[in-house]
Specification:
Layout: H1 4-11, H2 18-37, H3 44-52, H4 64-80, H5 94-115, E1 118-124, E2 126-127, H6 137-146, E3 152-157, H7 160-163, E4 174-178, H8 186-199, H9 201-206, E5 215-218, H10 219-222, E6 225-226, E7 239-242, E8 246-252, H11 255-278, H12 285-305, H13 312-318, H14 325-339, H15 347-359, H16 363-373, H17 379-386, H18 393-398, H19 402-405
Helix pairs in contact: 2-4, 2-5, 4-5, 11-12, 12-13, 15-16
């Protein structure tokens, strides 16, 4: 979707100082690459085609929205770096678009690294001990698969899966670091994206209502790291499945990115509230988990905007002194749903899991079907859960456009 705040920034880009300009371009390109790696960038028609034959990915077409976002980002980069003469052959095929994107990203990171001030952050993850995760066979299987993907230099699990305090609501959270060779060897990169895609089927076997695939960084990004991609403190409670246990990240001030991330999530919550309450659209368990996941991001994202980077599970307590009572009550109410999240898969859902996760290993199509066919939430429960989310409008108004443009010169 188009975020209102991004339109404001695009129209006022020249008012930002150079650090914020580069920070915004960085997050924009990273988000396009995220959609490439996780295969969200291709057209819906081609998502269906690769379900039946993943080898069709090379010629799959990138959705026009991502083409336009790339072109807009290139335009902004020319404003930030007037000496750049980068241009791309406007080819929307997945392989050729990815090649152009990576050529640009390499140039951008080299330029940004020379301008942005970075400081080193030492992180340390834990060694993987198979016996500790014997109740989660998907982790062992994922470890085997990820170690067979050459361009993945390091791989980690993080969050409640790593700390072993997971619940029925928990996601299969991963972070991968990709070899810098992806800048040069597009064909090998695309082949490994196919392998990553198939391996992510394990995420949905662990969590039937998983809503995301990989968090990632490229090796080159580690030297000019934006902490909004995944806060570096998360790695201290992560578990290493491949590669380096200890890492040094060179990070720059990402306050602008944290505010943008919060603004986008608040806008998404308002949009979903409008769809499900004002427009009366049905919500099922798949969509409800997605909605609640946005709610649970807000406390940590808000705290990051004021310089506090907590673990997500700690953010619900820390946020109490910053949010009004009615918002804290709503967050606590939503947390009680998460704590008691239990469901029995329907016969139809079990069939979908067997066919599209274990046989076809096609999580994109599984997502589409689960979004369509998971059990509906009763109207009275929908109103109880979603109606009070309107309280977040106050926070959304607080994080408004002048936050981004004050004191930029």
């Amino acid at each position: 979707m188009d975020y209102f705040i991004d339109n404001i920034i695009y129209d006022n880009f020249s008012r930002l100082n150079i650090d914020k300009q580069l920070e915004y371009i960085h997050t924009s390109v990273h988000s396009i690459l995220d959609a490439i790696i996780n295969l969200n960038a291709i057209t819906n028609k081609d998502k269906l085609r690769i379900t039946w034959d993943i080898n069709l990915l090379n010629s799959a077409q990138v959705d026009q929205n991502y083409i336009e976002k790339f072109e807009s980002t290139l335009h902004l980069y020319k404003i930030a770096n007037e000496n750049s003469d980068f241009h791309w052959k406007q080819d929307a095929s997945f392989k050729n678009f990815t090649h152009s994107l990576m050529l640009f990203y390499k140039e951008f990171l080299d330029y940004a690294r020379n301008i942005l001030n970075v400081s080193s952050v030492q992180t340390g993850s834990k060694n993987f001990v198979s016996e500790l995760y014997s109740q989660i066979p998907e982790i062992d299987k994922f470890k085997v698969e990820i170690n067979n993907i050459e361009l993945v230099k390091s791989a980690y699990i993080h969050g409640s899966l790593s700390t072993l305090d997971y619940t029925a609501f928990s996601d299969f959270d991963t972070f991968i670091i990709l070899d810098d060779r992806i800048f040069e060897d597009t064909q090998s990169f695309v082949e490994d994206i196919k392998k990553l895609y198939k391996a992510s089927s394990l995420f949905y076997i662990f969590d039937p209502y998983q809503h995301h695939r990989y968090f990632f960084a490229i090796e080159k990004e580690i030297s000019v790291y934006n902490n909004s991609f995944l806060p570096t403190n998360v790695f201290n409670d992560s578990t290493c499945l491949k590669g380096e246990i200890d890492r040094i990240f060179n990070t720059y001030n990402a306050d602008f990115s944290h505010k943008l991330a919060l603004k986008r999530v608040l806008q998404m919550v308002e949009s979903l509230h409008d769809n499900y309450i004002n427009k009366g659209k049905d919500i099922n368990l798949w969509k409800l988990k997605g909605f609640l996941s946005y709610i649970f991001l807000i406390p940590s994202l808000y705290l990051e905007t004021i310089g506090i980077c907590p673990y997500k599970k700690e953010s619900f307590v820390l946020i109490e002194k910053y949010f009004p009572t009615k918002l804290n009550e709503y967050i606590n109410f939503s947390s009680s749903i998460r704590a008691n999240w239990q469901y029995k898969l329907t016969y139809k859902e079990k069939i979908l899991r067997w066919v599209f996760l274990k046989v076809k290993k096609a999580p994109l199509f599984y997502e589409y079907l689960m979004c369509s066919y998971s059990p509906k939430v009763k109207t009275k429960d929908k109103l109880k859960i979603l109606d009070s989310s309107l309280y977040f409008q106050e926070i959304n108004t607080e994080i408004d456009q002048e936050v981004f443009f004050e004191n930029n010169k």
